[in-house]
Amino acid sequence: MRMLHSLMGFLLAASLGQGHAAAPSLDIATEESPPASMVDGRTVIGSSTAKVREIMARSGLRYRIDLLPWKRAYTSALRRDNGCVYSTTRTPEREHLFHWIGPLDEAEWVLLARADRGYQFKTLEDARGLRIGTYNGDAREEYLRSRGFNIDSANNDLINPRKLLLNRIDLWAASLRRGSYVLEQNDWSSRIVPVFTFRKVQVYLACNKRVPAATAIRMQGARDAMERDGTSRRIERKYEAWEKHKAKAP
């Protein structure tokens, strides 16, 4: 009988081990991009971060979230078998590289300029020949570079508005999301203005193709349930209020 119990215990442990192998612990990376992702003390927070954490909780998955420069975050998801990255723009060029869970949010790709320049663009072509500040490795940079625009890349996106004010670039190709008050928070809203929206996109949690498809399906199901029961919208309202309060703070 003792031998039978030992055998059953061994089989149960083996079964549990197989279960963990089927649903790996995920290494999730993101960038500093308020209000979607940012650091509070040692904790990564934000509207998209809260959605990702809820997806993981509902899916019963183990994970960690690290905040990194965007190019490093994106590359880690490509190279790690258990890697994921958000908030990632879903483009035709990237489609085959990842499992896509989402969308988590929407964004507008906007050209911004110094207010005293008086630019009035009707199409993206009106920007051809001007120096456009972009974020190294970002989808906006890929989009503009592939179309032959004059790109000036920065390793941190918030370097670009400073370059713009110093006349080192003519335009800043930014991604503006619902609830974003980056111009107001930095006292730029009277000096930097949007001049043209050139694309509307959706952003996702993108996971390495070696993450089991069943795991990605489970995560997508959790995200869809969050949309149906109002959890996603409640998270968005919380961070919209947080951003408005921060923008008004002296």
3D architecture notes:
The chain is an alpha/beta fold and 250 residues long. It is built from 8 helices and 10 strands. It has helices at 2-22, 47-59, 70-79, 139-146, 159-165, 182-185, 213-228, 231-248; strands at residues 26-30, 38-40, 43-45, 63-67, 83-89, 98-114, 132-135, 151-154, 171-177, 192-208. The strands form 2 sheets. Strands 4-1-5-10-6-9-7-8 form an 8-stranded mixed β-sheet, sandwiched between helices.
Summarize the structure.
This protein is α/β, with parallel strands linked by helices. It contains 8 helices and 10 strands. It is 39% helix and 29% strand.
In the sheet with the most strands, the strands line up as: 4-1-5-10-6-9-7-8
Q: Classify the beta-strand content into a percent band.
A: 25-35%
Query: What's the story with the biggest beta sheet?
Result: 8 strands, mixed
**Low confidence ranges:** 1-21
Number of strands: 10
User: Could you say which overall geometry the principal axes of the C-alpha atoms support?
Assistant: globular
**SSE class:** alpha/beta
pLDDT averaged residue by residue: 89
What key phrases describe this protein's structure?
39% helix; two-stranded antiparallel sheet; 250 residues
List the topology elements.
Blueprint: H1 2-22, E1 26-30, E2 38-40, E3 43-45, H2 47-59, E4 63-67, H3 70-79, E5 83-89, E6 98-114, E7 132-135, H4 139-146, E8 151-154, H5 159-165, E9 171-177, H6 182-185, E10 192-208, H7 213-228, H8 231-248
Parallel strand pairs: 1-4, 1-5, 7-8, 7-9
Antiparallel strand pairs: 2-3, 5-10, 6-9, 6-10
Helix pairs in contact: 2-7, 2-8
